[in-house]
User: Fold this.
Amino acid sequence: MHVFRPTFYKIITKKSTEGFQSIPYVVALFSSMIWIYYATLKSDATLLITINAFGCVIETLYISIYIAYAPKNIKIQTTKLVVSLNFVGFWIIALSTHYLAEGPTRATILGWICLVVSVSVFAAPLSIMKKVIRTKSVEFMPFGLSFFLSISAVTWFFYGLFQKDIYIALPNIIGFVLGVVQMILYFAYKNYKKKTIDLEQKLPTTISTMESYPVCDAPKYDTKKDSNMCDQIITLKSTQEENIEDGAAGGQMVSAIQPINDLVKNVMKEDVIIKA
Assistant:
């Protein structure tokens, strides 16, 4: 249970639940309560009772902290989940098995219920794993939690094996597999953001056109030259008009117009170059 400490230390420090979810803690509390009830029906189950009693205390503390710092809507949802699962759900199971089953049959029914609940505890982080894959961030899936989940699963598996209790041994196989998957995801995405930042820093920066070609180096537009060219065009046009009035031959008109056209084209080309 101590693997949750960094998570709740962060919640208390920042006074916010951020992206953490309450489902794993609520389901873990429910599992501890069911296992205690199951242990009371078996002999030599002192270890099972003490460990899960400690788990109930710790999980209750964690849920209380979570509710205290959660936003209003999350606070309401978590409270409803605790009431429906840890109070209503638990007492329905406890009273129904107590009055509807006896002796070994009651233990068998509770054993299967405990097995299903234990699998749910191990499956609860699946939503977090999905979030890790989607966001490519392991911020809300601490490595310590996944590591100790795997160690705990292995320990309880051998405990159930030695006690010849399939209800304890079987779900911890699934828990070990899920714990290993979480650790693989952690190593796959733990440096993803860092690699992205390093790649962005290595990308060449774009140099603006103004920096590449300063204004002072750009060719200047010669208005005086443009004015002189316009004067020449006007003079040539005047000459053309005089030739027409004097009744100049058609060949002479073409020869007078041609230099004007060439001059206009040259002026337009220079103007385009200057503007570019």
In short: The two ends are 72 Å apart (CA to CA).
